[in-house]
Amino acid sequence: MTRRVPALALVLALAACATSPSPPESVELTVYAAASLRNALEQVEAGYETAAPGINLVIATDSSAALRTQIEQGAPADVFLSADIVNAQRLFDAGLVEDGITFFAGNTLVVIVPSDNPAAIGTPAGLAHEGVRIVAAGDEVPITRYATQLVNVLAQLPDYPADFSNAYAANVVSREDNVQAVVAKIELGEGDAGIVYQTDALASGSVRSVNIPDEATHVQVMYAGVVITTSAHPEAARAFLHWLTGADGRAILAEFGFLPPS
Question: Which of 16, 51, 106, 233 is 20 to 30 Å from 208 at the Cα level?
Fold first, then answer.
């Protein structure tokens, strides 16, 4: 009996190992996302990795246009979250999108100034005043497209000068790589004003917001997500994008000021 007990114990241990479920295989998903999503995605990462054990999100943020170009050049992204429809559509048109385009969030625009507001800008009309230093983004960055729409709408309002759009353009003193770089320059006082997303203004403790007239608030800001055709884990990528558009994902985005897609 004394010789059989260890052997029996070994058999039982091996049997237990054979019937125990294997731990889930770890999957690393690379998410390329618009710079304006950076803060929210830190919380999204924690939430999704808790909801989907075995999934590790690797998040890279920059201008949507810059990230789209990287994907076109073969960068190994699984999911692309763009601050506009245009860049997602370009990838779709190029055959680089696995499925369709998913709209997952919205945003609004706001004019920001440094906390001490040295240029004394009280309304967006001040963006056209002589000597005002406006910090903007590059031509391909989504915030620039949205800002141009906003400026053109403002130029049509009765209280704004006829040359408002030209005066605004003449006051632009720098073009940054993405919207967070715009905010950073205003925070440092290296510019008097900039047009950014409401979520970026809310995340900064060093800027003030200038109200935009109701007539100009209809500029639509839409965020679009896609799964990239070259993804090594397309099913996992789809599952993440589905979660982001669901109740849990939208709740996190709402905490940071993002709106539901409309």
Answer: 106
User: Which run of H or E residues covers position 259?
Assistant: none
Tokens of 172: 């632009």
Q: Residues 121, 209: one domain?
A: yes
* Among 257, 234, 226, 242, residue whose Cα is nearest residue 48: 242
Same domain, 47 and 86: yes
Please check whether residue 98 lies inside any domain of the structure.
Answer: yes
Domain count for the chain? 2
> Between the CA of residue 80 and those of 11, 33, 132, 236, what are the distances in Å?
50, 6, 36, 14
In a domain, 170, yes or no: yes
Q: Which two tokens stand for residue 109?
A: 């625009």
Dist CA 221 CA 36 (whole Å): 12
Structural domain harbouring 186: 109-216
* DSSP one-letter code for 1: -
The region of weakest confidence among 4-18, 65-79, 232-246 is 4-18
The CA distance from 247 to 232, in Å, is 26
Residue 30, φ and ψ in degrees, nearest 5: -95, 120
Position 6 pLDDT exceeds 60:
no
Helix (H, G, I), strand (E, B) or coil at 100: coil
